[in-house]
Amino acid sequence: MKVGRSQAGSIAQTQLELEGVHCAGCVAKIENGLRQIEGVTSCNLNFVNQTLVIESSQSVSNMVETAKKVIRDIDPSIKVKEKVPLQKMKLTIEGMDCAGCVAKIEKGVATIPGVQSASVNFVAKQLTIEANAEQLHHVAVQTEQFIRQLDSKFTVHREGDSSAERQSQSVSEGKSKLPYVRLAVSIGLTFVAVWGGLSSNISLALFLIAYVLAGGDVLYKALRNITRGRVFDENFLMSIATIGAFIIGEYPEGVAVMIFYQIGELFQSIAVNRSRKSIRALMDIRPDYANLKVNGELRKVSPEDVQIGDVIVVKPGEKVPLDGKVIDGISMLDTSALTGESIPREVEAGSEILSGSINKNGVLTVAVTKAYKDSTVSKILDLVQNASSRKAPTENYITKFARYYTPVVVITAALIALLPPLFFAGEAFSDWFYRALVFLVISCPCALVVSIPLGFFGGIGGASKNGILVKGSNYLEALNDVKYVVFDKTGTLTKGIFVVTDIQPHGDLTKEELMRYAAYAEVYSNHPIAASILNAYAQSVNKDELSEYEEISGHGISVNVCGQHVLAGNAKLMRREGISFAEPESAGTLVHVAVDQRYAGYIVIADEVKEDAAAAIQELKLLGIKKTIMLTGDVKRVGDAVGQKLGLDEIYSELLPQHKVEQLEHIDAQKLPKEKVIFVGDGINDTPVLARADVGVAMGGLGSDVAIEAADIVIMTDEPSKIPAAIRMAKRTRKIVYQNIFFALGVKALFLLLGAFGIATMWEAVFADVGVTLLAVLNAMRAMKPI
């Protein structure tokens, strides 16, 4: 499918989806094969999302057929299809306080032509639609019409439409007192009708007025939904139950049930809105403005309007609006909203700073290094806000359960009302009809539909407060079944920073003299090992004392220092120069030094292990992890030393990216069907294996953008100890969700039995519905607390 042409109009771009590309080695074969085709100017296959982009002078249809043939020849099992360009659109739905509407909206919007997927975030009141880019406007119009038809109180506006948002907020504020007034009048009229000593006709009239005031909107919604073919929902159940109470002469009970139902709904709405505010507060890191420096003057602008390379000023107490590098100033930054760390971090000229942190004291002048859409704060907000679009299996199950549960209950209630009077002598229809009405009131599945997504969203929000970004509740739930944790080494278990760990002079030389020779030899090199030696030497090097400097590729350095010939490099350099030496067993890179063809000693340079790595491994084992494994491209000697120091179960060294994928697949083949495998990495070379794991975890502080995109969970602090913390958070969230499921179903089952046998009245039925829902919502809010 053509998505663009060059200015000359001769180059067309084709996008294809490839299913079945599991081998990273196939990527190069496919790209090389397609580049041989006449007219192809560029070809790129994204291994993570299996998308192939080809630019060619051929027509799109010819290019598609040619590409299919080439790919078929390379691997017949790979399926190729044209990629439809999809675009995401977000709509905010004001007035959505009933979780039962979520499934209706998702199901209805998904049927609109052009829509690929639709997901409602009940907590954020946001609908995310993925649709054909060419049909996006049509989809938006159709969606807005459908939602307004579903409920007239819903107001819909697109993301970024601030005027619509303000209008909807003012409307909702104006209407906010009306339900309370109606309920108060309804309660007052009911009291007068019951205890006012009025005639039966006047009392009935008051009951009817009170009933309409309390439940008019419920009756309207039920009737409207029936006309649209949507019968079985909470409005229908409450309408049938309360109208039935009037039919059998239980006027006070019919009105009271509707009043208590509405009171329960109000309390539920208050609880849900409070939880929404709490979750938003966890992620209240969006910057409102940036102080842009232009010609020596400051202009307050939107962060979206700042470009890479612009200079901004961050004053004390302000949020850092964009990622950048400090060019002037010293200050302390509060990064707790990003990383969960309470200790402020000191920054100065040259320091990298992240958007979303708060400047505590000094004035900072910052050169912007990333546009707002690519900044840390933007990515965090996007990850957390979109997390609910990937629903956990438990959420999907409950949504499906509620869809069939209500019709079954209605049918059961009808059988309760009709069968006993028909088949058993002496049974009054009015008694069993009343029991059926009680049965209906109890049956509403609101407690499950509301509290379960709220629990998962709270868990995701609590994890983000702890510096752990989970991209979906499905990944949060998957952490409960993890039994194998696989680590990369450099940048994951180690700091990725080389330091001198040991100095071993040979003969009469001192450590200081050996370091001096090595530092002078390495002064012109830009290799990380050379930098670590110069940092450890920590003295100035007089370059005038050097002569005949030569860098021997793959071996090391040869140089004269004050007339002495110095060699510094690896074992191959010593052998090449015929210098006798003993190579020790050491967990690090060895730099051998020789002076005037005599061996002078060696320096050990190693990547430091992170302080919390060993404790993280031990904690994982306490959490029931069967095996902790390390896959590294480093040499076996170094890999084994790090692995043994940390207490890892298995260590695999000298692996290329494709070998890591193969090793992970081998681990995956050994596990039980329900068990999950985590891979934790940070670099571009970890992207294929991150995508292949059941749950991919990226180190987000120092990790590459590609690794972060491919991962399912991002650790903002780069601390391995956050992995057991994420598993504990997942276990706590699942515990809360299961508590709500068993509590709601247990209480409802008990009261359904009591109602069927005539023990429970409508008063108990109301508690079994709205009371249980309220308790479940309050319990779900506990998931928001960070560990």
UniProtKB/TrEMBL annotation:
Native source organism of the sequence: Paenibacillus agilis
Pfam families: E1-E2_ATPase, HMA, Hydrolase
E.C. numbers: 3.6.3.3
Homology family: Belongs to the cation transport ATPase (P-type) (TC 3.A.3) family. Type IB subfamily.
Gene: cadA
GO cellular component: plasma membrane
Assigned keywords, A-Z: ATP-binding, Cadmium, Cell membrane, Hydrolase, Ion transport, Magnesium, Membrane, Metal-binding, Nucleotide-binding, Phosphoprotein, Translocase, Transmembrane, Transmembrane helix, Transport, Zinc
Subcellular location, record wording: Cell membrane
InterPro entries membership: ATPase_P-typ_cyto_dom_N (IPR023299), ATPase_P-typ_P_site (IPR018303), ATPase_P-typ_TM_dom_sf (IPR023298), ATPase_P-typ_transduc_dom_A_sf (IPR008250), ATPase_P-type_domA (IPR059000), Cation_Transport_ATPase_IB (IPR051014), HAD-like_sf (IPR036412), HAD_sf (IPR023214)
Parts of the chain that traverse the membrane: 404-426, 432-457, 737-759
The protein's name in its UniProt record: Cadmium-translocating P-type ATPase
